[in-house]
Amino acid sequence: MSGANGTFTVTSIHTYNNAGSFTITITVTDMTTRQTGRGSGTATVTMQGPRVTGINSNSGPAAGGTSVTITGSNFTNTTSVSFGTTAAASFTITSDTQITAVSPAGNGTVDVTVTTPGGISAVSTADQFTYIPLPSVKSVTPTSGPVAGGTTVTITGSNLTNATSVSFGSTATNNFTVDNDTQITAVSPAGSGTVDVTVTTPGGASAISTADQLSYIPPPTVTGINPASGPTTGGTTVTITGSNFTGATSVSFGTTATSNFIVDSDTQITVVSPAGNGTVDVTVTTPEGTSTASTADQFSYYLPLQ
After folding, report:
1. What CATH number does the domain located at 51-132 have?
2. Is the dihedral of CA 264, 267, 273, 274 positive or negative?
3. Distance CA 73, CA 52 (A)
C-alpha cells in the first residue's frame, strides 16, 4: 500500500471458516502526521478438504449402531459423516484427526466419508465399512426331541457363517458346528415345551418364526393297567393308560419286551403279556425315553389252574 511517506506492507491474520473470495479494507494511520491511508482488495481463501486414512471397526450389523473411530486429517468444522449415501446416526469431532461416528442401518460394503467446508473426503479402500446381514433360520430337522436334550438338530438358513451362539428358546448350547453358510449342526440342551431355535452372528440374532421351532416331548408315563394280573404263560390282553405314548417303540413286562402291542392313542396302548412270573413293572419306551416305574404299572403273574 502506498502512502505519503512510502510504501507499506501490511500483514493481516484472520480466521475464515469457509473457502471463497472476500473483499478486505485496510486503514493505516501515520502516527507522526496523523494522516490516514485506506486501501481495499480481494482475499482468496482456499481450504484443504478432509482425508480419511482409516476406520477402527470395518464391519457391523445391518441394523446399525456400531461405534466407528475415523482417523485422518482436516476434520475440524466437519458438517456431516456418511456411510455410503446415508448420514451417520451421530458423530463427535474428537480432534482435527479423529471422529467417532455411529453407523446407521445399511447393507453391503460402503465408503465412510467426511464433509467439511473444504469438501468431501475422497473414497478409498481405507474408509470401507461392511454391513453384516442378519442370519436367518428356515428349518430345523428333526422338529422334536426329548426333554432331556441330546437331539442332533440340523439347522438350515442363510448367513450362518461366524455364528457365535445357537439357542433353544432362552437356553444356549455350546455344542454346535457351523457346517457352511447355510447349515449348522447343533445338539439340543434340556428343555420343555415348544421353543424357537435362533442363531446369533456378529450381524445379530435370527428373527423367530414357526419354521425354527422345536418341540420338547416328555417321556411316556404309565398311570394304570387293566387287568393287573395274568397267568405265567402269558397271553393276557392288557390295556395300558397314561400319556405321551405316540411313537412307542417297545413295551416291557419287567425285563421282557414284547412286540405284540398296538398304540391306540397318545394315552392308550393295548398289549399282550409275554410269559413271566412274580410282580413286574409294565414300562413303555418311546424315542423320548422310558416311563418311570411305579405301583400304578405293576402286573402280577399267577400260576394257571391245572
Report:
1. 2.60.40.10
2. positive
3. 7
Quote the radius of gyration of the chain (alpha carbons, Å). 40
Which grid cell is 244? Answer: 405321551
Q: What does pTM read for this prediction?
A: 0.69
Q: Say how far apart CA 113 and CA 160 lie, in whole Å.
A: 30
Nearest to 232 by CA among 149, 146, 302, 157: 302
CATH superfamily of 221-302: Immunoglobulins (2.60.40.10)
CATH of domain 136-217: 2.60.40.10
- Which tens digit of pLDDT belongs to each residue from 164-188? 999 999 999 999 999 999 999 999 9
Q: What is the residue-wise DSSP string for 180-194?
A: ETTEEEEE--S--EE
Q: Which residues contact 125 (CB under 8 A, 6 or more apart)?
A: none
Per-residue CA distances from 47 to 41, 80, 101, 127 (Å):
20, 17, 23, 22
Locate CATH 2.60.40.10 in the chain: 51-132, 136-217, 221-302
**Under 8 Å between Cβ of 266 and 209:** no
